[in-house]
Amino acid sequence: MIQIITTGGTIEGLEYDNENNVSKGGNISISELLDNITHEENYIVQKVFSKDSRFITDEDRNTIFKAIKKSLNKKILITHGTLTMVETAQYLGKLKLDKTIVLTGAFILGTKENTDARFNLEFALDTLSYLKRGVYIAIQGRIFYWDNVRKNVEENRFETLSK
Prior knowledge:
Distance between the termini: 35 Å
Strand content: 25-35%
Number of strands: 10
Strand order of the largest sheet: 4-1-5-6-7-8
Helix content: 10-25%
Shape: globular
Largest sheet: 6 strands, mixed
């Protein structure tokens, strides 16, 4: 069984209003996106909050941690906004949890016809079937380990760090 923890972000259709400095929208649920995905493993969806990721704090990350710790499932998928996804992956990775945790999100609103949300969600679910214990980001058909990834904001993509 896979535990899916949702936190908001572009994948759920949240938009950022620069004029008023607030999030708006958010009118598609992860459950609705999952309805269009064929996946063999069972899952349960748990919404912990709904925020644009630029507003996610360490207190919020601790809320995610508590949900993971409380879960009896060893496979955890977290849907998250891409702007601070790396920071959340690092926060969780440093905790060395005995679970496989994958974060994913979207670059195009989950409410748009051309969204990458479904692809990224399905890809992330599939990666949980073979990844070992640890924290990963699975997005755009690529997998990144929590301590070897950065978001390239200029090119709007995730990249491996040079180590």
